[in-house]
Amino acid sequence: MSKLNHFNDQGQAHMVDVSNKETTSRVAVAKARILMNSNTLEIIKNGDAKKGDVLGIARTAGIMAAKLLILFHYVIRYL
After folding, report:
1. Which residues on adjacent β-strands are paired with residue 13?
2. What is the pLDDT of residue 2?
3. Would you say the pTM of this structure is higher than 0.70?
4. What is the pLDDT of residue 11?
5. Sign of the torsion formed by the C-alpha atoms of 78, 65, 9 and 20
6. What are phi and psi of 59, to 5 degrees?
7. Which residues on adjacent β-strands are paired with residue 44?
8. What does the DSSP 8-state code read for residue 7?
9. What would the DSSP string read from start to end of 23-70?
10. Which regions of the chain are under pLDDT 70?
11. End-to-end CA distance of the chain, in Å?
12. What is the pLDDT of residue 69?
């Protein structure tokens, strides 16, 4: 089994230089159905939520989750 290069000798995750990695093309498709009160939808669409930009936070969470999935797939591959 080859050594995981996303972890140091202590098992801590760290950034890896991928600048020499060959470019690959990938496509991901996601679908969802969200049920909510129509008033809630209007608040989100108008940007009037008390806690800030709901869609911006959701977008950021989605990007972070996608990046974690890539790392997890790599780790699972070598378990």
Report:
1. 7
2. 57
3. no
4. 72
5. positive
6. -65, -45
7. none
8. B
9. P--------------HHHHHHHHHT--TTS-HHHHHHHHHHHHHHHHH
10. 1-4, 78-79
11. 9
12. 81
